[in-house]
């Protein structure tokens, strides 16, 4: 080290040194000397040095060429013709020159400065070497020599001072081409090549053909140590840094095959579980935001592949609507068709043509059996083919198993399905991943054949249960459909849906969590009354407290207009002890409400500071407040819970909630019931955009104070557009100010 120069010393000590970008083209001075190399130093000061030509050179894959092919560079200079390449180092040599030794002479390149000269030097040296390796590895004869050349190529890429993405990608593409053209390698040769190129894969994604090679190795030798030692960091890098599997689907396929290879180890799914945990990390928050979306993409693609041949081959697959409610009659559908159906039999009325011979490999065999119960279906139609609505109790008798589709997958597809369904279950166990996972799965991304498969929906039920148990609204709100007219998990796992196998326990759990946070309570109750009233009544009849509360709310909010249906609901409530008790409490509340809303009492009311929700409830239950128009709760300790009392005031027009703990949940309830409210003061309350957006339905608002709240500029603009009567607004000390 003591005798080494500074650059050499830095290299020996592992210093970074100078880094250069790979040149593809550039301007440079060119001079050709037609003299032997031994006389070059003697003519450096002669007239030849005045014969420089400016050229714009391009560094191609096989040669150095000029954009203006004249003079010295009339024809391209092949890299194979360059015998030697070095900077000029004689004392009397011109500055910043490169010497390219070619047969019969020397080509001199003069750059503008030393850095540019070195950049040209390293770029030309790289192009020359990579051209040599591409040529050597194109037609391999002895694989031990090929392996030695691959190792030398990898070392060259790792030690090059050029800092460019293509420096390490080019060797990978050369090796990828080599492997794609030589498919008869032994397993040991496979492993030797993979180990040799492993250093390049630490910071680079493998190219598509190399991914195919890796996939083949995972399928043929899943227990190989290469899978654990070499592929694990490669897959980890893919999951952490890949931005779009759509642009590189073979990366996704390689990740899928790697996970299946892990599943083949002795530990099976325990090894996969440890891998997923390593991707998440030991802390409560995963530091890599791309891991979850990439894992979900791999799972979705793998699950789709289990049903892919069935999807592509069978034109008579059931619609999602059929899967959900099973109400389509057998006569309305084509009869079940075999998987090997010939399209010519359907598309052409011509005489049948003899089918072509089947391929030797047996295709995926999936048996689809549709069971219908005509007696139950006739009950739904009504008497004598009439158009009257079906009786609600008859609707309850429709069992989801009557329209079940029994799908049998081959053993390999069944293992794939079990593996990736279990990964989805693992992902749902991480609290920080659950919101994003729920959002990714909200528009149901699975094919309808998967949703008709009892094993799959049973496995996925755990994930939906985790969503239903999560108290965060951003999670359990994803159980609903992404927009009206679309089916969501709530519909699929409700009684009558194909995925429901528990007599409505999960459905009741979903309803409970959604009712606790859904700000469109009335709208949600209306949708339940229209689509799921029968299941709600059945579960209430079995004593489910959530469904008893739902039926009581439907009566309290006048959701049900049909008198006969109201009587059926009352009969259902009175048939159980919990229902009877809650119905009696409802009747008591209705009597109190009538007394409260009876005309009379004050028109203005101000509660003392420090009053609580209980104080307000006690005050409003003491007499009639049907005339109350102005209520001030400023500087009290009331919370969103008092909204249940406020919505009972039919004449309320002005409400002051200044400096209270009234939040988003209370605002959502007010927006549904106090349509005539004109003045609302929310100054210094903890309301956010989530609650303030609900005010857009209160068209009578003409004065709104949102001073010192968490109002955003976008929400403010939205409220202004949707509240035509709004004249006075206070948004000081907010983002919209």
Number of helical elements: 31
The helix/strand class is alpha/beta
- State mean pLDDT (0 to 100 scale): 80
Q: Work out the number of β strands.
A: 13
Q: Using the alpha-carbon principal axes, give the shape.
A: elongated
Q: Any idea what the radius of gyration is?
A: 38 Å
Helix % is 40-55%
> Strand sequence of the main sheet, in spatial order?
4-3-2-1-7-6-5
Report the end-to-end length measured between terminal Cα atoms: 66 Å
Describe the sheet with the most strands.
Answer: 7 strands, antiparallel
Low-confidence stretches: 1-16, 319-404
Strand content: 5-15%
Compact overview of the structure:
It is found in: Cytoplasm; Nucleus. With 737 residues, the protein is α/β, with parallel strands linked by helices.
Describe it.
- The chain has 737 residues and is α/β, with parallel strands linked by helices.
- Helix content is 47%, strand content 8%.
- It contains 31 helices and 13 strands.
- β12 (703-705), α31 and β13 form a beta-alpha-beta unit.
- It comes from Scleropages formosus.
- One of its GO terms (cellular component) is nucleoplasm.
Indicate the topology.
Blueprint: H1 6-12, E1 25-33, E2 53-59, E3 63-66, E4 77-78, E5 84-87, E6 97-102, E7 105-110, H2 114-136, H3 143-159, H4 165-181, H5 187-201, H6 208-220, H7 225-241, H8 249-263, H9 269-280, H10 291-313, H11 320-325, H12 344-347, H13 374-381, H14 392-396, H15 411-428, H16 434-441, H17 448-451, H18 454-469, H19 473-476, H20 489-492, H21 505-517, H22 521-531, H23 533-541, H24 545-556, H25 563-574, H26 577-597, E8 604-606, H27 613-620, E9 630-632, H28 643-646, E10 654-656, H29 664-673, E11 679-681, H30 689-692, E12 703-705, H31 713-722, E13 728-730
Parallel strand pairs: 8-9, 9-10, 10-11, 11-12, 12-13
Antiparallel strand pairs: 1-2, 1-7, 2-3, 3-4, 5-6, 6-7
Helix pairs in contact: 2-4, 3-4, 3-5, 4-6, 5-7, 6-8, 7-8, 7-10, 8-10, 9-15, 10-15, 15-18, 23-24, 24-25, 24-26, 25-26
């Amino acid at each position: 080290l003591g005798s080494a120069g500074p650059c050499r010393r830095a290299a020996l000590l592992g210093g970074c040194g100078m880094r250069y970008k790979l040149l593809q083209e550039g301007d440079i001075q060119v001079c050709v000397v037609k003299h032997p190399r031994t006389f070059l130093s003697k003519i450096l000061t002669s007239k030849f040095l005045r014969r420089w030509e400016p050229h714009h050179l391009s560094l191609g894959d096989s040669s150095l060429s000029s954009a203006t092919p004249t003079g010295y560079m009339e024809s391209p200079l092949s890299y194979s013709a360059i015998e030697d390449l070095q900077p000029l180092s004689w004392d009397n040599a011109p500055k910043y020159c490169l010497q390219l030794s070619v047969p019969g002479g020397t080509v001199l390149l003069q750059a503008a400065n030393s850095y540019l000269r070195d950049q040209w030097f390293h770029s030309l040296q790289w192009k020359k070497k990579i051209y040599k390796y591409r040529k050597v590895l194109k037609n391999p004869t002895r694989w031990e020599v090929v392996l030695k050349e691959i190792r030398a190529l990898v070392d060259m890429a790792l030690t090059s001072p050029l800092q460019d993405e293509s420096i390490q990608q080019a060797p990978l593409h050369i090796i990828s081409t080599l492997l794609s053209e030589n498919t008869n390698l032994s397993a040991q040769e496979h492993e030797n090549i993979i180990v040799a190129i492993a250093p390049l894969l630490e910071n680079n994604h493998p190219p598509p053909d190399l991914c195919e090679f890796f996939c083949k190795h995972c399928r043929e030798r899943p227990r190989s140590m290469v899978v654990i030692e070499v592929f694990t960091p490669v897959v980890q890098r893919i999951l952490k840094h890949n931005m779009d599997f759509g642009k590189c689907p073979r990366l996704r396929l390689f990740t899928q095959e790697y996970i299946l290879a892990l599943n083949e180890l002795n530990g099976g799914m325990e090894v996969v579980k440890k891998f997923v945990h390593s991707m998440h990390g030991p802390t409560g928050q995963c530091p890599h935001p791309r891991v979850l979306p990439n894992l979900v993409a791999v799972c979705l693609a793998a699950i789709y592949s289990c049903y892919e041949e069935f999807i592509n081959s069978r034109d008579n697959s059931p619609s999602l609507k059929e899967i959900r409610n099973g109400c389509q009659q057998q006569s309305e559908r084509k009869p079940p068709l075999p998987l090997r159906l010939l399209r010519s039999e359907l598309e052409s009325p011509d005489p049948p043509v003899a089918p072509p011979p089947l391929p030797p490999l047996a295709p995926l065999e999936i048996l689809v059996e549709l069971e219908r119960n005509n007696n139950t279906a006739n009950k739904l139609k009504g008497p004598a083919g009439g158009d009257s609505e079906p009786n609600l109790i008859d609707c309850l008798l429709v069992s989801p198993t009557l329209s079940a589709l029994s799908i049998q997958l081959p053993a390999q597809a069944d293992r794939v399905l079990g593996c990736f369904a279990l990964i989805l279950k693992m992902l749902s166990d991480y609290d920080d991943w659950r919101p994003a996972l729920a959002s990714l799965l909200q528009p149901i991304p699975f094919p309808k054949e998967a949703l008709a498969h009892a094993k799959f929906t049973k496995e996925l039920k755990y994930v939906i249960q985790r969503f239903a148990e999560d108290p965060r609204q951003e999670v359990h709100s994803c159980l609903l459909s992404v927009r009206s007219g679309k089916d969501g998990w709530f519909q699929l796992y409700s009684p009558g849906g194909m995925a429901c196998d528990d007599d409505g326990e999960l459905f009741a759990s979903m309803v409970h969590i959604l009712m606790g946070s859904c700000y469109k309570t009335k709208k949600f109750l209306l949708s339940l009354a229209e689509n799921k009233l029968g299941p709600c009544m059945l579960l209430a009849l079995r004593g489910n407290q959530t469904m008893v509360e739902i039926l009581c709310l439907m009566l309290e909010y006048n959701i049900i207009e049909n008198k006969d249906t109201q009587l059926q609901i009352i009969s259902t409530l009175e048939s159980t002890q919990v229902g009877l008790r809650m119905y009696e409490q409802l009747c008591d509340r209705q009597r109190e409400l009538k007394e409260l809303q009876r005309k009379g009492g004050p028109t203005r009311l101000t509660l003392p500071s420090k009053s609580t929700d209980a104080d307000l409830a006690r005050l409003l239950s003491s007499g009639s407040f049907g005339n109350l128009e102005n209520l001030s709760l400023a500087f009290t300790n009331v919370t969103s819970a008092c909204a249940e009392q406020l919505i009972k005031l039919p004449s309320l027009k002005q409400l002051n909630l200044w400096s209270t703990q009234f939040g988003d949940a209370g605002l959502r309830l007010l927006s549904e019931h106090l349509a005539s409210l004109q003045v609302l003061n929310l100054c210094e309350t903890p309301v956010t955009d989530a609650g303030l957006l609900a005010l857009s339905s209160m068209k009578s608002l003409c004065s709104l104070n949102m001073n010192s709240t968490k109002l955003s500029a976008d929400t403010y603009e939205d409220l202004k557009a949707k509240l035509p009567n709004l004249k006075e607004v206070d948004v000081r000390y907010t983002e919209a100010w």
